[in-house]
Amino acid sequence: MCTAALSSRHHTPSPNSPWVQVLETQDMDQHALTQQGWALQYEQLSSGQFKGHIHQVLLPEVTLLREETNIALRQRGRLDDGVYGFAMALQDTPDLFFNGQRVPPHAIMCGKGDEVDLTTPPHFTLIAVVVERNLLNPLWERMYHKPLAHWLEKQLVLPTTYIKAHNLRNLQLTVLGQASALTHRQHDPQALRQLRDEILMEWLEALPAQVDTTELPNLERRKKLVDQACELMLSHADEPLSILEVCSRVGASKRKLNYCFQDVLGTTPIKYLRSLRLNSARRGLRQAAPGVTIQDIASHWGFWHLSQFAQDYRRLFGELPSETLRKR
């Protein structure tokens, strides 16, 4: 179920009025779908019934976002083509990972929007800005008198200072509120552009003067190994592979695979695989055709003992498989 806390107009923002969406959600998949124009999929990693909140504002060539979620998640997918994203936790929090990198306090997650991979802890709030290249490129050149930095084509975690992070968080929330207040009124296009440019420049000025990418190849190799292991495990969902079999096929020792999963996702391969299979079973139940049974779905994802499956399923999602099936 997805309920709107504010009626929204689903169209491209006009030069005189922003497009605003404020939603309270109780369904993880619906939550992902509500984010305009982005192709995202969420996997639930901690126990509980999902609750989410989205505050999204579309200005010309810029999207502002505040997102709140109550359970640990992995978000994967992509944003629009030709955009760059900048994001930060609203409060500094442990167990936050971006594209295989642990995110320290006061850090900015940034990069091109063709890939998103974010693992978040329970009770997490994200603020973000997504900007089109056609706007970012000339703005960057005016500010720094050089072309757009090549490292923005990657996905990076960059440090900033406590003061810059504090100011950025406050300004983002202020601009979200101001833009929302303008949604039903016609305003001077120049005033909207100034509001947009003010928050965008605050994000850019919070970036460090120098960016070191020497560790990026090592990070990318660890993430690639984790992604290969996940794809392999999902391809044998009905007959789950042992960790030793996975290690053999991806060419890594058990110790190395364990280390890479901890480094990239903050969990073990066994725990992550079980969560992934349970999430897939849940989607199967929600999309099941008439006549398809819980046993059909469970066995497809390698759960052969129905009572244990029901117990594990309820522990993760806060409801029995039969309840999910009834609500499809």
Structural summary, described in words:
42% of the residues lie in helices and 23% in strands. By secondary structure, the protein is of the alpha+beta class. The protein has two domains: 2-205, Jelly Rolls (Sandwich); 217-326, Homeodomain-like (Arc Repressor Mutant, subunit A), CATH 1.10.10.60. A hairpin with a 2-residue loop joins β4 (52-59) and β5. α3 packs antiparallel against α4. The longest helix has 20 residues, at 162-181. The N and C termini lie close together (11 Å). Mean pLDDT is 89; it is low at 1-12.
Name the CATH architecture of the largest domain.
Sandwich
Strand content: 15-25%
- Residue windows where pLDDT falls under 50 for at least 5 positions: 1-12
Radius of gyration from CA coordinates: 21 Å
Give the tally of structural domains. 2
Protein structure class: alpha+beta
Q: What is the CATH topology assignment of the largest domain?
A: Jelly Rolls
Short description:
This protein is α+β, with helices and mostly antiparallel strands and 328 residues long.
List the helices and strands and how they pair.
Blueprint lengths: L1 E5 L12 E7 L2 H6 L5 E6 L7 E8 L2 E8 L3 E6 L4 E7 L7 E2 L2 E2 L4 E6 L3 E5 L3 E9 H12 L10 E5 L2 H20 L7 H17 L10 H20 L7 H8 L3 H12 L3 H18 L7 H7 L5 H12 L3 H6 L2
Antiparallel strand pairs: 1-2, 2-4, 3-6, 4-5, 5-12, 6-11, 7-10, 7-12, 8-9, 8-11, 10-13
Helix pairs in contact: 3-4, 5-6, 5-7, 5-8
